[in-house]
Each structure stands twice: as C-alpha cells, then as structure tokens.
Write a structure and sequence with these properties.
By secondary structure, this protein is an alpha+beta fold. The protein is built from five helices and five strands, in the order βαβαβαββαα. InterPro entries: DUF302 (IPR005180), TT1751-like_sf (IPR035923), UCP021774 (IPR016796).
Length: 128
C-alpha cells in the first residue's frame, strides 16, 4: 500500500497552491497549518530549495470523531498535503493516505473514519 496519492498540474506553483487550497475548502477541509519549506531552508540553512509547501488540511468534524475514538491520533493529524514545483509550470500535489498512516492503530472504528477521510482527500486531489 502506498502512503500518498498525487497529481501533477500544468500550472505554476502559486496557482497550484491557490487551486489546492480552494479544492480542499470545497471538499470540507480547512488549512490549519502552512509550512513554507523553501523559506525555512533558506532562513535556517542558507540553502536554496525548490518551491515546496506543506498544507495541514483538517476536516473538523472528522478530526473530532477520530479524537473521540483515539485520543493520541492527534500525533498524526492534520492530513498533510504537499505542493511542490517539479518544473517550470509543472507542480505536483500529494496528499497523505490517512488509511496508510493509521495502520499501526488497532481500532476498527478509527479505520472506518480514516477511510471516509481517504475518500474525501482522494476526491480533492483527483478533482484538481
């Protein structure tokens, strides 16, 4: 089983971030964290790195349900979505597969919840 699903768009990085953020919103997710890896590497390491952003996507209702089932599941929340420039006007969007990330947790109810999140996230990525 893979641990992510992805799609490559024929658009620039900023447009891909905009489209991804909007698609996540339309799919029931909010962005609760945003990490600009490019800027962080420049500021902390003094190195240049391709455009790379990590969006922490969260569906509040499903996160609430998951935390009711397993209080430590927050260690693997939110669902990370990566937007990375792979060439000029080519950007890849990749999302964690929540089913794969929760395999180590032996809770059948949580697995069912992760499958619902997986479906929502996969629809967002495929719809881009």
């Amino acid at each position: 089983m893979g641990y992510y699903f992805s799609k490559t768009l024929q658009v620039g990085f900023d447009e891909a971030v905009r489209r991804t953020t909007e698609a996540l919103k339309q799919g029931g997710f909010g962005i609760i964290t945003e990490i600009d890896v490019t800027r962080t590497f420049k500021d902390k390491l003094g190195v240049d790195f391709r455009n790379y952003r990590i969006l922490g996507a969260c569906n509040p209702q499903l996160a609430y349900e998951a935390l009711q089932l397993e209080d430590k599941v927050g260690t693997i929340l939110p669902c990370n979505v990566v937007v990375q420039e792979i060439a000029h006007d080519r950007t890849e969007i990749a999302a964690i597969d929540p089913v794969a990330s929760m395999q180590a947790i032996e809770n059948p109810d949580l697995k069912a919840s992760a499958e619902r999140v997986q479906t929502l996230l996969r629809n967002v990525i495929e719809g881009l």
